Amino acid sequence: MSRLLSPILAGFLLAFVAAGAVAAQESPEPATEELVELVLFDGTRVRGRIVSEAEEFVVVESDSMGRLLIDRSQIQAVNRDIPGPTSPPGWRRDPDANSLLLTPTSETLPRGDGYYRNFLLLFNNLGIAITDDFDLSAMLAFPVSSDLQIASLGAKLRLVSREETGVGVALAASGWVVSGEKVGSLGAIVSLGNHRRSLTGAVNHGFADGGGEVFFFLGGDVQVGRGFKLLAEYGNSASALTDDTDFRGLINVGFRAFWESTSFTMTGFRPLEDTGDFLAFPLVMFSAHF
Q: Domain of 137?
């Protein structure tokens, strides 16, 4: 496969995700209720859909906080016609919207949210949101052998939320120990869209004692059902694009099924080159939040 086909195929993958977003938008869905913002006397702002009202209270469903019962005596004002992403009634919010599979998004998790992720039964990942805009994570690989030991620490700082502006920006850093060798990376992430449909570009500069390398990923997702998403990713390195090598990048395509606090992701991973009869290698990830 020629080198020119790599970015072309990547474009097709992202076009596939974008087409899915359009299809999801055009397909019949339950009518979305009006999005409002309640301003409380203590300065708190609650954005969501009014589920029910009574003389003493209002029940609001927020994408991030669930259903809230708010006493009318606490409400100072109600702002209507609020722009911003919202989901059809009954549709779940992806608890792992802070990443695809190989590609991180610009989003962070709500403050205090913790999670456990298992990747391929081999990598165990724990994370916690210190604030709404700052996440920390740690990974430890299952000790397959004494010669292969892998551990890492990572952090992500969200600068701009894509849920609020439609464009998100974040910085990420990680440190790895791989069989005694220390490796680090610094990266920048830009995402377009929201938790239901998005496109993301991530650039990382990895460095070790032997030198450094720049890696990048392009990815997208689109929610096509109550708790179901399609994912597509393309990855490559700067040297593979500029040097005469056989590596043409890689693609990763699959789905995510998710519930309120858990998700299961499965994809097919393959390099962009002639691999004979080989089609794709399966990648799986399970996630649970607490």
A: 5-28+94-289
